[in-house]
Every structure is written in structure tokens, then in C-alpha cells.
Design brief:
418 residues, globular, Rossmann fold, 16 helices, eight-stranded mixed beta sheet, 2 domains, two-stranded antiparallel sheet
């Protein structure tokens, strides 16, 4: 029944609708001269096209070509059009018939412990073995989003690599009691042992986003298992980039007290709470992209890829409470990694102790891990090779230009250290 919504999202929906409404109310409350000023953000970022339109309106107001009342009426009509486009985009997404094929997730795992599984993506028998470690808060299949948008399948088919993926899975009762030490010195190290056993040799350890921090800690603990280390959009100095970035990081930690009741009740930070924290990085971006989606051909490739990516974003994973406290309070609130205070199993995580090959991909348009946050890690790795793709945090691994932006360079580097 195609008329019935197929999915939830964007999550948390009330927050995104509320932010869109707040943006409109703010615009209505502002004087026309402020809204139309090309030099003013008017409380939100503008595209270059938006700045040009603002400049045109500002000239018309200055020349007396528009009365303030007429401007306000035109603004209200524009806001109503935006609201209709947003609702149309959300409805089109929720009713879209696309369903992602299972990919390697449908194959028997090489290893499994609790919710975690080691998935083998094959490749040439003599391919460089690689273990890929994703974040704990999102599904691992962003690295295998679609047949035509799969970093792992591409590496296996074209890159001379045998990729294996550590899929963390959905945390059960046991996992909800985990700390980062349980993750790194437990699940990750045992998954690493399984990958080395399957390959018959040490592997290239590849970490993405939060997974990069976990991979770094594991490589320092088990250098005999790791031939090279690749860190993709991996944060290190959470206060890098100036006081504004530091204040934003500390503000995220400031939400912890309010999140405690939910974590006490469930043993984890809920998905909608995680999504709400991410929304703070780009408060109006979700609504804007759904307005664009409303104009797409629902049967086209762009719409299909959009839905696949949004399904991934909206199907997040709750973060065990102790880990949430360590990440928000420690990483963001106290900047423990950069200050040399982050520990796994009692030992400090000191990246300078990794003297093997290292590849750092730092996407230029990353809003989740600002480039300065990741660049700080390069100064501590003696053999760091920096790669700066002209892409965003997710686009680097799963976007339409990901092969050019990252996959080829990552494969070449891995093969050079195989």
C-alpha cells in the first residue's frame, strides 16, 4: 500500500519541524533591512544564491521600490511555500518504496560475539587485508550503502584490498554496561584477532569517525596485529579551531545532566537524543535538504541515494550510558584525548607511540568533525600522510564523488603498505 508511510524520520521529527517554524518566526520578527542585508546571516547560513537575492531585495528597499508592509506579505508567502515544500519532502521520503539490499550483512560472519560481527567483503586472494572500524552510534552499512555506493565493495573489486567490516550491531543488555575499555580491549581486539586469523597476516586497521579513535587505541595496544593505520575523519583535539569550537564542544557536554534520566532508565543514550545533538551542528540543514528532495524525480538515482542515506541516518544505534558519559563529558567536555588524559584499560592513549604508517583523511567540508579537530592528530603521528578530500563527513565515504575523493587514494596507500 504505497499511500501508507513506510518509515519514520527525519528523527527527531518534532525537533526538525520546530526548528523550521522557529526560523520562520524569527524572520517575521526581524526588520526587513536586517533580513535583506547581504552582510547579515539573519540567524542562519545562506547560499551564494541566497546572498545575491538578499542583495537584490536590499537595493529595492533602499530605492523605495517596496513598502515594508508589502515586503512582510511577500516574506510570509515565501515562508508558507517553504513549509509546504518541507512537508512534501518529508511525505515523499516516508512513502518512498526503496528498500536497501542486505549486502554482505546477509552472509555468515567470520566471527561474532554478542551483537558484534566480522563481515568479509572478499576481494583478491592476495589482496591487502583490512579491518574497518565504524562509529558506535551509526549503522556500519554507511560503508556499504548501495551496490553503486559502497566503499567496501569497491575496495574489494578494484582496490586490491580484502576488506573486513566490524559491525557493532545493536547493543543488548550486556553491551549497555560497556565502557570504552570494554569496547577497545575487549570486542575490538578480539575482532582484530579474528581478522588477522582469517587473513593469515597483520591487517591495515581503518577507523571512521569515532571508530578512528577506537582503532588508534587498539593499534597502540596491539601493534603486532596492525601493519598500517588509516584514520578517516577522526577527531582528536575537540577544542581545536578557536574558542567558538571549544565552547560548542563544552556545550555538548553540558547536555549530560539533562540526559541522565533517559540513560538511567534504558542503560543507553537514546537514538533520538543523539540525533538531536547532531542537529545542533547544522540546525536548519535537515529541513533544507528535504525541501530539495521534494523537487526530485522519485524514481531517479538522486532520490534513491537520498533515501538510502536518510534511512541510514535515521536508523541510528543507542550509545551505552558509560560510553556516552566518557565521550560527551570526557572527549567534548574536558578534551581528554588532546590533553593526554584519555585512557584505555588504565593506559594513556598516546598517538606518538604509533610509529608505523598512518593515513589521515580530513574532509574539507566536514561539519561533524571540523578539519582542525582532526588535523591535530597528524602532529602526533611520525609517519602521517594527510589526504584532504573536497567532501563532507559522509560524502567522503558514500557520496557520488567518493571514489574520486577518497576510495582511490586510500586503496593506493593501503596497497603501498601491503
Amino acid at each position: 500500500m504505497t499511500g501508507i508511510p513506510q518509515r519514520r524520520g527525519p528523527r527527531p521529527l518534532p525537533l526538525h519541524l520546530g526548528m523550521a517554524a522557529l526560523r520562520g518566526l524569527a524572520a517575521l520578527a526581524m526588520p526587513p533591512s536586517v533580513i535583506a542585508s547581504p552582510s547579515s546571516s539573519a540567524a542562519w547560513p545562506r547560499s551564494s544564491a541566497g546572498r545575491q537575492e538578499a542583495a537584490r531585495v536590499a537595493r529595492a528597499l533602499a530605492d523605495g521600490g517596496h513598502r515594508p508592509e508589502a515586503f512582510q506579505a511577500a516574506l510570509l508567502r515565501a515562508l508558507l511555500r517553504r513549509d509546504r515544500a518541507l512537508v512534501a519532502g518529508i511525505a515523499a521520503y516516508r512513502r518512498h518504496p526503496f528498500r536497501r539490499p542486505p549486502g554482505a550483512a546477509g552472509r555468515p560472519p567470520l566471527w561474532q560475539e554478542g551483537a558484534a560481527r566480522l563481515l568479509d567483503y572478499g576481494g583478491a586472494a592476495d589482496g591487502v587485508p583490512a579491518l574497518v572500524v565504524p562509529s558506535l552510534v551509526n549503522r556500519a552499512h554507511v560503508l556499504d550503502l548501495l551496490p553503486e555506493a559502497s566503499m567496501l565493495r569497491w575496495l574489494a573489486a578494484n582496490g586490491g584490498v580484502r576488506p573486513m567490516l566490524l559491525d557493532w550491531g545493536w547493543p543488548g543488555t550486556v553491551e549497555r554496561s560497556f565502557t570504552l575499555t570494554d569496547i577497545v580491549a575487549g570486542r575490538l581486539e578480539r575482532g582484530l584477532d579474528a581478522a588477522v586469523a582469517a587473513a593469515g597476516a597483520p591487517v591495515v586497521l581503518v577507523g571512521y569517525c569515532m571508530g578512528g579513535l577506537l582503532a588508534l587505541a587498539a593499534a597502540l595496544r596491539r601493534p603486532d596485529r596492525v601493519r598500517a593505520l588509516a584514520l578517516l575523519a577522526t577527531p582528536w583535539d575537540f577544542w581545536a579551531g578557536g574558542e567558538a569550537e571549544a565552547a560548542r564542544a563544552r556545550a555538548l557536554a553540558g547536555f549530560l545532566p539533562g540526559l541522565e534520566p533517559a540513560m538511567e532508565a534504558t542503560g543507553a543514550l537514546p537514538v533520538d537524543a543523539i540525533q538531536a545533538l547532531f542537529t545542533g551542528l547544522d540546525p536548519f540543514g535537515i529541513a533544507d535538504k528535504y525541501r530539495v528532495f521534494a523537487r526530485l524525480d522519485p524514481e531517479g538515482d538522486r532520490a534513491r541515494r537520498f533515501v538510502a542515506l536518510e534511512d541510514w541516518l535515521n536508523d541510528g544505534i543507542p550509545l551505552p550510558a558509560a560510553i556516552a558519559r566518557e565521550c560527551l563529558g570526557g572527549w567534548y567536555g574536558a578534551n581528554t584525548p588532546a590533553r593526554g588524559e584519555w585512557r584505555i584499560a588504565g593506559l594513556h592513549v598516546e598517538p606518538a607511540r604509533w610509529t608505523g604508517p598512518a593515513f589521515l583523511a580530513i574532509p574539507a567540508r566536514d561539519r561533524i568533525v571540523p578539519p582542525a579537530t582532526a588535523e591535530a592528530l597528524a602532529t602526533h603521528l611520525p609517519q602521517a600522510v594527510l589526504h584532504r578530500p573536497a567532501a563532507g563527513h559522509v560524502g567522503m565515504v558514500a557520496g557520488t564523488g567518493a571514489e574520486r575523493a577518497l576510495w582511490r587514494s586510500l586503496a593506493a596507500w593501503m596497497c603501498g603498505h601491503g
